[in-house]
Amino acid sequence: MAKADLMDYDEALEKYEVVIGFEVHVELATKTKMFSDAPNFFGGAPNTNVTPVDLGLPGSLPVVNEQAVRYSISLGLALGCSIAESSRFARKNYFYPDNPKNYQVSQFDEPIAYEGEVEVELPDGTVFHVPIERAHMEEDAGKLTHVGGSTGRIQGAEYSLVDYNRAGIPLVEIVTKPIIGAGALGPELGAAYVSTIRDIVRGLGVSEARMERGNLRCDANVSLRPHGQVELGTRTETKNVNSFRSVERAVRHEIQRQAAILAAGGTITQETRHWHEDTGRTSAGRPKSDADDYRYFPEPDLLPVVPSRELVEELRLALPEAPVAMRRRLKADWGFADLEFQDVVNSGLLQELVETVAAGASPQAARKWWTGEIARLANAAGVDASTLVSPRHVSELIALVETGELTDRLARQVLEGVVAGEGSPSEVVEARGLRVVSDDGALIAAIDEALASQPDVLAKIRDGKVQAAGAVIGAVMKAMKGQADAARVRELVLERAQA
Predict the structure, then answer these.
(1) What b/e readout covers 62-96, taking b as 16+ CB neighbours within 10 angstroms?
(2) Where are the alpha helices (DSSP H) in 301-454?
(3) Which residues contact 496 (CB under 8 A, 6 or more apart)?
(4) How high is the pLDDT of residue 1?
(5) In DSSP terms, which residues pair with 174 in a beta bridge?
(6) Model confidence over 12-21: pLDDT tens digits?
């Protein structure tokens, strides 16, 4: 699609009202799958985490995962939803290789949670209340890998492989109502909403919510209508957008694309679309099916889910603080400036900071290490920073720096050792011999040698040109292999120069 096929964003907003909506799929972190005792974990050799139930083999019968139901109720409550006294599973019929039964067990007209609202705060402090239509339980499908071709998609592929390890993993799908009135902030609201959902599920402990692994996936719906029109426009659904930035870009792109089509007298096709991170564009997928096309009917092999009121209230009382309220409290408690706190939020590492501070580190030091050196290592490795090191180890590393046992330079080396799997920070320090040399005798010996080898520098220092001490300090730090406190070395250099 050429740039000429996109309308200027501001012009699109002048001509049309934007209506957006989101369907966020959350994989639940249960030990086993939704309807079988197959293990639920990421990775593993293809088609090994499966049972006859996951493969849809004749005669196999599903059994509901109780923990998945508890997690789903907790999530529904955290979304401000009502919990149904009785909810029922249904068969959603469609034919695709990653769906071995040729139907997906989901919930249709009787979801476990309904009618909620989520408070979402944008970086500038603007607050939106996003209406939630429903949150329902279902099972995930398998994963297809298309081999050959240039795009990694089925078009042009030589053949496809299917891995059923993911088939049957418990999901909660969170569906918003149409969001009206966001205007120019629509794309930004989309990214902030998905980020808020991630914070909620991670705070609950019901999902790892790692978008790069597919634990959290977002489908973004966009439609346009002329200002003043009551009827909603035809929507498109951009599938499986896997980062906050991509959600924002995909929504913006669809607004511009649809506006250009409508302004030219065309019509919008109700369809799924694919997001291309490399080009920043969407492309057509398949015509979007309506509910009737799936021929839903009640799942005959599963009884309705009827949680007791006592269970619902027990889970309600255990809910953690809402993300927006927690952010406001943490910002005040930590004394962060607006930009400092937004830096943490944008990094996606707020929970890691919370746990690091809880382990004993100061908020500023935790922010420095997580958004600095740890984020740098993660970017270089192409992984999520939260997977590199634990908050407990970061707190331990910070303590070693603050007690003077490590300099920042040595601490970076220790961090690399921890990331490499060499043990805790203290273990890496001992194994690599990286502790700061605190013996003044050893430092004085190195200083005297450096001063003796640089008589001209010594003369300058004695003449009051203390900045010349930098050359001696550098030589001492090199001789000590960086394992000296530069401030202490400076003090000793000035003392020895005047001796």
Answers:
(1) bebbeebbbbbbbbbbbbbbebbeebbbbbbeeee
(2) 309-317, 323-334, 338-347, 350-358, 363-369, 375-381, 391-402, 408-419, 425-432, 440-453
(3) 444, 447, 448, 451
(4) 45
(5) 24, 135
(6) 999 999 999 9
User: Which is more confidently placed, 43 or 229?
Assistant: 229
Whether residue 38 contacts residue 168, with contact meaning beta carbons closer than 8 Å, is answered with yes
Residue 427's identity, in one-letter code, is E
Of 408, 487, 489, the C-alpha closest to 446 is 489
Q: How far is 255 from 9, CA to CA, in rounded Å?
A: 7
Nearest Cα residue to 40 out of 208, 201, 187? 208
C-alpha to C-alpha distances, 331 to 88, 203, 343, 350, 477, nearest whole angstrom: 42, 17, 12, 11, 38
The alpha carbons of the chain give a radius of gyration, in whole angstroms, of 29
Question: pLDDT value at position 285?
Answer: 83
SS3 content of the chain, % helix, strand, coil (to 5): 45, 20, 35
Q: Can you say whether residue 181 is alpha, beta or left, with left for phi > 0 and alpha for psi between -120 and 50 degrees? A: left
Tens-digit pLDDT profile for residues 85-102 = 999 999 999 888 898 999
